[in-house]
Specification:
Helices cover 53% and strands 14% of the residues. This is Non-structural maintenance of chromosomes element 1 homolog.
Length: 220
C-alpha cells in the first residue's frame, strides 16, 4: 500500500513538473508536503526527485536545480536534455518565428557594454531586418508569447528585454554551441555584468542524480 502511494506521489510530482517546467523549490515543497499529508507518507522530496530522474530521462528530460544568482532563490527545473538546436527546444514556433528568436537572442548576447538586454524598440526593429521581413505586429505578438512562456523578462524601468533564468536553463545546450564566445566562464567581468542585467547564467544548473548507487549529484 505504501509503495503504491509513493508511486502515486511520484507520478503527481512528474505531472506537476511537466505542467510547470520551472518552479521555486519553496513552492514545490509546499505542494509536495500537502500531497504527502493527503497520502499519509513521510516527506522525502530529494529522494523522490532522484527516483523520478530515470523516468524523465527515458523521454529526453532532466530534473535540475538552479539558483537565481541575484537573490539565491532555489528552483527546480524540468528541461529538455537532448535538444541541441533552437528548433528542438522552441517546438511551438514556425521557421520564421525561430529565425526571429535566434536574431533576438544574438542581439541580447551581443548587446553593447555586456548589458545582455535589448530595448523593446530594437527588438521590434529586428523584425524588419529579417528575410522575408516579419511585421512589427507579428513580432510584438511573438515577444508577448515569449514573455508568457517565461523566456523573456521585460524591465519596466528600462523597457528592455533580457533572457530569463528559465530560458537560460532550457536553451543551455543551444547557447553553449552557438554563443560560446559569450558564455565562456573565463570571462568573469562579462559574466558578472550578465548576472546583474540578465539575472541568470547558463552555468548554474545542477543535475539531480538518479537512483543508481554509483552516481552523485554533479554539475554540468
Amino acid at each position: 500500500m505504501a509503495a503504491a502511494s509513493r508511486a502515486t506521489l511520484q507520478q503527481a510530482l512528474v505531472q506537476g513538473l511537466l505542467s510547470r517546467r520551472m518552479v521555486k523549490r519553496a513552492e514545490l515543497e509546499h505542494l509536495y508536503a500537502e500531497l504527502c499529508s493527503a497520502l499519509g507518507l513521510r516527506s522525502a522530496l530529494d529522494e523522490d526527485l532522484a527516483e523520478i530522474q530515470p523516468r524523465v530521462a527515458a523521454v529526453g528530460l532532466d530534473v535540475r536545480t538552479c539558483h537565481d544568482p541575484i537573490n539565491a532563490t532555489p528552483y527546480i527545473v524540468l528541461m529538455n536534455a537532448k535538444a541541441d538546436t533552437l528548433a528542438e527546444v522552441a517546438t511551438p514556433y514556425s521557421p520564421s518565428e525561430l529565425q526571429y528568436i535566434k536574431a533576438l537572442i544574438d542581439a541580447i548576447f551581443h548587446a553593447p557594454d555586456h548589458r545582455f538586454s535589448v530595448p523593446s524598440t530594437q527588438a521590434l526593429q529586428l523584425a524588419s531586418n529579417m528575410q522575408p521581413p516579419m511585421t512589427k505586429h507579428a513580432a510584438n505578438e511573438l515577444l508577448h508569447s515569449l514573455e508568457h512562456r517565461g523566456w523573456l523578462v521585460l524591465s519596466r524601468r528600462t523597457g528592455a528585454y533580457s533572457l530569463s533564468l528559465r530560458a537560460l536553463m532550457e536553451l543551455d545546450t543551444y547557447l553553449r554551441n552557438d554563443m560560446e564566445e559569450c558564455v565562456l566562464e573565463s570571462r568573469p567581468t562579462a559574466m558578472a555584468r550578465f548576472i546583474r542585467h540578465a539575472k541568470a547564467r547558463t552555468v548554474l544548473g545542477t543535475r539531480i542524480a538518479g537512483n543508481a548507487p554509483s552516481h552523485g549529484t554533479h554539475g554540468r
